Each structure stands twice: as structure tokens, then as C-alpha cells.
Amino acid sequence: MKKIFSILSSVIFCVQLLSAQQDGWHITTKDTSNYTGIVVANGRLGILPSSKILGVEQVILNNVYDKASSLGVSKILKGMDFMSLSLTIDGEKIDHSSVSNWSQTLNMKEASFSTSFDFKDKAEVTYTFYALRNVPYAGYVDIQVRSKKAIEVEVSGGIKTSMEYQDPMSTFRILRDAEVTMPILQTVAKSRMGKHTVAASGTFIWHDINSGDEHVRPALTHVKTSEYNHAITFQRKLKKGESLDFAWTAAQTTTQDFEDPQNESERFVIFNLLTPKKDLLQDHINLWKELWKGDIVIEGDVQSQQDVRLGLYHLYAFARGDSNLSIAPMGLSSQNYNGHIFWDTELWMYPPLLIFNQDIARSLVNYRSDRLDKAKQKAINFGYKGAMFPWESDDTGEEATPAWALTGTFEHHITADVAIAFWNYYRVTKDKKWLEERGYPMLKEIADYWVSRVSKNSDGSYSIKNVVGANEFAPNVTDNAFTNGSAITALRYASLAAEAVEQKPDPEWNQIADRIKIHRFPDGTTMEHAEYDGERIKQADVNLLTFPLDIVNDPETVLKDLNYYEPKLAAEGPAMGKAIFAVIYARLGNAKEAYRLFKESYEPNKRPPFGALAEAATSNNPYFATGAGGMLQTVLFGFGGLHFTEEGIIQKNPILPKQWKSLTIKGVGPEKKTYRID
């Protein structure tokens, strides 16, 4: 039944795409059936527009957590709906049943999401959502109503607060300074378990009216249904051919980032209110223009271009270089996985960002070093030395995995994954000061952890016992291939880092790294763990020893491992496994197999109408930023031939699938190099 559903979804998706605008920067739909939206985000908040007229599905607040329940773990906050808008024309509230020529377009270049439609024979309406990159706690909706005949328009803008918030206080005030008046709608409430105070403020902006002129500004009426739902409205009569151009702007702040979120949210709204629209939006567009200096251009395959750029768009949208925050598996698109931070960041999303944007990459690694003390405490608590990172991390840096999940107690490779990301940051940037202050202290603590974590065998080798590996179908095993391989890599990188800062490395680091066991079958195929006997796997594990770890690198064994483990991947597993296989095949020079696996790594996971990625072919939880990271790594490190080395980013043996005319990778590394493959 799942297979039939998947085929039917693919057919519907293809039909929708036929009517869509097809270029490398825009994705357009005219169909609301089987609809999965695309988020606009700025690294601090994510706004998910819906197919409903002026509708917002949800708002996600980055790094703002409260307990999910009294006995639960932390969960990222779903913000108040601070963009609750409605439009009425001639007394009829507009919904989808009364419009025609409806369409939506995601503009990835400018990070905007536009909807347009006709309302009967009376008006044309267009509105565009922004999560402002330049004002990161604020959103903006630019709206135009063009009359086809004389009409009366009523617009409502409000704040809706879900019932999980406590003690909301909803107000409408007109603030004044000299001749300027500033109408502010606001709700202040406690988060679900009372950890945070959250404040949302909003107001209308009329672009063609002087903000201080009381005589021409439309009168606002405050309508308060309850403390959980209130709005301000205005009316305007339009003659035939007239237009009404206005905006709604709103901001949302919390005690996670501000001592006084109530006043701060008002200040952001006032800033947007009194900044000319052209300047405000141009600053947002310019910041995205700067991000897109790091880009991937595919010639000859518009669909692949669109898919790849959508993945990169999401990684840029979910992070920012000035935050020292990380990216959850679903970014700022949903509360899935409680918005926690996993290995998904370091192994999957981080490498493409390190290629293109070292500021964002630095934010991701600094997120970990800011929580080093908590990792050191965790190591002590479990009887180890050094630093031991949680499998799921939140704002605190403590373990945030639900207690019932064995991953939280036993999936230890995350600690090595952090070390790998740290050394790669130094390899690319050569930032000696960062290495001295943050990089080496982290790598040293992680190496000390692995020294204390291994067990010495009678033959002088070392094992790592009782772990959950990347393949989470096999809990509590000994010598998981990826766990052991990542520990080897972390220990070696710590020695290199010590030398780079002119410190003497602990000789045990390399001695142990040289003797950690990697098990093999009699024919030389790498075993996933000491007792592995051919069971199906959730995702790539052994093959990670080839890429990105470069521990298994002789072509014969690499190919054996590929042939053995690809058929064992479970359909319900996440997308990244096939992306790893694709990278490896590309590096072996097999473009045909690489392209097949590249497509298989994400196409079954696409959801209409925009191509949002779910975690697996059988799930529906987009947007899965981890999957985007895997797809992008196939392009960059597989077809593009890019490698992280001690000399920085270099290119070796790029290869192009026959379906593409050329591949251009722009803005690579600190030098912003361009690589083109024809």
C-alpha cells in the first residue's frame, strides 16, 4: 500500500510541476491539493505560510525551549501566530472558495514567498511573506489590493496565541513621540511550562502615507475576542483602478535572548514601521545576495538545479553567522525531533556550509564550544574523562534525549563528530586564534574522552563497547564501525591540532587510534560491528569509513562495502545513506551509479508542490535539512571533487553525470574560488 501511495504522490507531484514556473530560482504552484508548504526563515525564526488565504501554518522560535510536559524533555517553542491576517471585500471575507487564478511562488534568491489571486471580478490581490534577514526577530507581509471596480476593503491583522501558553496579556496602544504616532498590537505570555516570557507585537504600515499624519491614516479598530486572540482592523474604499499598498510587520522576542522582551518586540516593530519599505526590504535582499555568493549552478537539468538550490536555500535560511547557534534536523520548519541538535549538523549540514559560508560554519562549531563545560560534566557523570556530548542537545547543552531512547545514553559517536567538524573548520580557515581559544581545547577534551572510553584487549588492540552506532537498528554493540572510525579520526585530529598550536600531543592519542579495531568478514568486507551478521540497516554506517573518514580507501574494499551494504538499507531509513553511496561512486569515477543514487537519495522524499524533503520516502515531516545536507555533499564532494585537506579545500577528479552539461560551484572557501566542470 505504501508503494502505491508513493507512486500516486509522485504522479500528482509531476502534474503540479508541469504547471509550475521552471527556472533555477523560483518554484511556482497553482494547486493546493496534497500541499506541503515551504518556510521562510532567517536563522532566528521560521514562518511557514499555508495554502489558505493570508494563512500561516506556524512560527518556530530558534533555540527557545521549554519542557514539552511536566515529565517530558525540552521542546522548541512554536511561537504565537503574529501574522493572523484576513481580508474582506464588500462584506465578504475572502477564502480559497471565492478566488481564481491562485498561485504561489517561492523566490529563493530573495527569500520571499508570494501568493496572488483574483477575487471574483472585483480585485487582484498579491502578498509576499518575508522573515527579515536584517531584522531577525521580525516578519513582514507586503500586500497589494488592485481594484477592478469600486470596492470597500476591510483588513484585519492580529496575534493568535495557542492554548499551551499561560496567562496571556493582550493590549493595543498608540505610542507617541513628538509628531509620530505608533499603533502597537501586543500579546505577552508565559511559555507552556513557564520557563520563558514571550512577547509578540505587530502593526500595519501604509507605504504612501506619512506615518505621523493623523488626517489621512485609516482609523484602526481594536477587536479583542479574548486574551488569546485579538486584532486591529481598518477600512478603505477604493475606486475602480485604484490600489491599496500596505504591509503588516510583527516581531517576537523571548527571555531566552532579551531581559525585557515586551519592550524589545515593540522596538523592532517601530523600526520596521518607520523605515522606508524600499530600504527595509533591500537590506534583506542584499544580505541574501551576499549568501548566494556561495552557490551551485547546474546547466542542462533544471529540476536538479531547483532541487539542489532549494536544499542550499534551507541551510542558509535555518542559520546565521552572528548567532553561535546550530541547526536542528528540521531546521525552523517544524517542532519535529523537539528542535534538538544532533550529529545531523556536524556530519551532514555543516560540510556544505563550511564550503560556502565560514561565518555560519563558525556559528555551528561555536554552539558546541559554548557548551563544552556541560559536556565535561557529562563525561564525569558517566565515569569518563574529557568531554562527552549529548546525543540530543538544546539551549542548556545537557542531554535532551527522552530517557526511553537508547540513543541518548549510548550513541557516543556524536562526540567524535564534533571533533571532526572542529578540525575541518581550522583546515579551511586557518584561523589560529580560534584554534587556540576554542578549537584545540575542544579537540583535547574529546581525545581524552576516547582514551578513557576504549577498552584494551588481550592482543593489545582496543575496542569500544556498548554503543549505538549510526545504524540505530543495532543497539548496544561492540566495535561499531562508524563509532570506532570516528574515534580514530578524532584522536588523530587532536594530535594535529596540538602541533598546530605548538603543544605536545598526548602520545596515547595516536597509539590508541592506531589500534582501535575495525572488524572484517573473511572476504575483506568491513563488518558493521563485532557481531554483525547481515541484518538490514537504518542508514549508512560502514560506508562512512570511506567518506568522509577516509579510513577505508583501497578501491577493492570500498567497492565490496558499497555492494554489500546498499541492498541492506531499509526503505524507512533516512535519505543520507544513498547520498554517501553516491559520493563514493563519484569518487570511484562511476558517474552513472553516482547519479542514480543521488536521485534516489532525495527524490522519493520530495513532497508537492514545492519539493520539500521528508526524512524518508515513507514519512511526511519536511523540511528535512539533514537530507539536504546529504544531497549537497553528493554534488560538492562527489561530482565536484572537493576535499577537505590540511592544505584547505582542494579539488580532485571531478566527474559530471551525462544528464548535466556543466556544474559550477561558486564562492568556495575563504578565497571564494569558482570551480567549473564541463
TrEMBL record:
InterPro entries recorded: 6-hairpin_glycosidase_sf (IPR008928), 6hp_glycosidase-like_sf (IPR012341), Gal_mutarotase_sf_dom (IPR011013), GH65_N (IPR037018), Glyco_hydro_65_M (IPR005195), Glyco_hydro_65_N (IPR005196)
Domain of life: Bacteria
Glycoside hydrolase family 65 N-terminal domain: residues covered: 40-247
Signal sequence, renumbered to the chain: 1-20
SUPFAM superfamilies in alphabetical order: Galactose mutarotase-like, Six-hairpin glycosidases
GO molecular function: hydrolase activity
Keywords, comma-separated and alphabetical: Hydrolase, Signal
Ranges for domain Glycoside hydrolase family 65 central catalytic: 309-504, 535-602
Protein name: Glycosyl hydrolase family 65 protein
Organism: Gangjinia marincola
Upper classification of the organism: Bacteria, Pseudomonadati, Bacteroidota, Flavobacteriia, Flavobacteriales
